[in-house]
Amino acid sequence: MINDYKIAVIGCGNLGLSIVHGLLADKNVKAENITATRRNVQALKHLADAGVTTTSDNLEAIKSAELIVLGLKPYKIMDVLKDLAPHFDSSKHILVSLATGVHIADIQRIVGEDIPVYRAMPNTAADVETSMTCVCGNKDSARDLQVVLDCFSAVGDTIVIDESLMDSATVLGACGIAYVLRFIRAMIQGGIEIGFDAKTASHIATQTVKGAAELLIQRNQHPEYEIDKVTTPRGCTIAGLNEMEHNGFSSALIKDEGHPTVDIKALLQQYPVLGICYGAQLACHQYGGVVAASDKREYGRAGLHVTRDDLFHSVEEASQVWMSHGDTIKNIPDEMTIIAHTDNIPVAAYKMNSEPHPFYGIQFHPE
Ligand SMILES: NC(=O)c1ccc[n+]([C@@H]2O[C@H](COP(=O)([O-])OP(=O)(O)OC[C@H]3O[C@@H](n4cnc5c(N)ncnc54)[C@H](OP(=O)(O)O)[C@@H]3O)[C@@H](O)[C@H]2O)c1
Q1: Residue in 61, 49, 50, 46 with CA at minimum distance from that of residue 26
Q2: Which residues pair with 54 in a beta bridge?
């Protein structure tokens, strides 16, 4: 379907360019169907050489386009949309905004309710057709949604999410690229310290990270399952993992200002909720409890002691569970009740009898 569509990318900077590069690499997409804009059109010369129409005239670009991808910065997008609004045609145009934090309702206030408006949160791996793109939209039209998904499928994987999760998608998927790159950089520096030249260390680190991701993607496994396979008792892998946790590796990601989050109170209005590991810590934190770096080893097997409760009705009093966390729940709020502990941690599981639905939090990994 996307091969027949005329696509305009308005504001072709880092991300817009990544998307155009990805589209150009897709054999189904013709370069002559793509128009790319920015004010400094000289910076798009390589696209023009590849057959893409390049211009600084946004109005001209949307006239011939059907799918319009807005790659502008959040502080720019409204001004550009105000200029273009009178020229949008609801029978022809589909808008997709990449702008972080700009809601569909904000865009609709300018372009009107009739225009199909979508938000997409890709990442810069679109440049190498490996983006993770989260999409949400204001219309029920399956056809429009399919066009948007087809466009971003050309540059990687896509999922449809609720708009309320778009900020979380930004942190996990878009900022996530930087977190992983910093991790790789640290691996390379470690590799150099133990004897490799930078090029070899980089080769080993990047292929290792790629391999770890492929293991999870292709086998559909939980990370701990694969970690367990490479941790021998008293071995160097478990020593390294524990050292990472003692230095706050997981907790740095969880406590980051932009940590992945969901509105648990809102979820509980609709469903009973089970929070596992980070989910249990997040709920505790949101209700005023204390989550902090653990000073005891909490990686590996642990003996769980349960209080009789509906969640554990078929679980024996002393059961073995798997723990893997650097942070731990130090204090739970008054409305929560502890329903399990281990020898190392007092809050291995808790319950909150919230209305209309209860919340259960468990720090171990039943999955
Ligand atoms: N970078 C990421 O990883 C990422 C991930 C997800 C979402 N986002 C979102 O994607 C959007 C773009 O981010 P970015 O990093 O790609 O920003 P960027 O590199 O600054 O790209 C924005 C481009 O817009 C162009 N522009 C500015 N005013 C314009 C106008 N009036 N008409 C046409 N083009 C104009 C600029 O080029 P000229 O100055 O030459 O016009 C610039 O190249 C942002 O809203 C961001 O929140 C980014």
Answers
A1: 50
A2: 36
Q: Give the length of the chain.
A: 367
All structural domains of the chain, each given as residue ranges with its CATH number in brackets, are 2-161 (3.40.50.720), 169-250 (1.10.3730.10), 264-362 (3.40.50.880)
Cα separation, 36 vs 29, whole angstroms:
14
Ranges of residues in the chain with a pLDDT under 50 are none
Residues 117/135, Cβ–Cβ less than 8 Å = no
| pLDDT at residue number 88 | 95
Joined tokens for residue 287 = 């209700």
- Residues 293 and 222: their CA atoms lie apart, in Å, by 23
**Alpha-carbon gap, residue 193 to 200, rounded angstroms:** 12
Q: Which helix (H) or strand (E) holds 229?
A: helix 223-230
pLDDT at residue 296, rounded to an integer: 65
* Ligand 1 contact, 305 CB (< 6 A): no
The H or E element spanning position 44 is: none
SS3 162: coil
- What is the rounded CA–CA span in Å between residue 224 and residue 208? 16
For residue 15 and ligand 1, the question of a CB distance below 6 A is answered with yes
Does residue 83's CB lie within 6 angstroms of at least one atom of ligand 1? Answer: no
Measuring CA to CA, how many Å separate 313 from each of 89, 245, 310, 341, 361? 59, 33, 5, 16, 16
Q: pLDDT for 98-120, tens place per residue?
A: 998 899 999 999 999 899 999 99
Residue 74 CA: nearest ligand 1 atom is 45
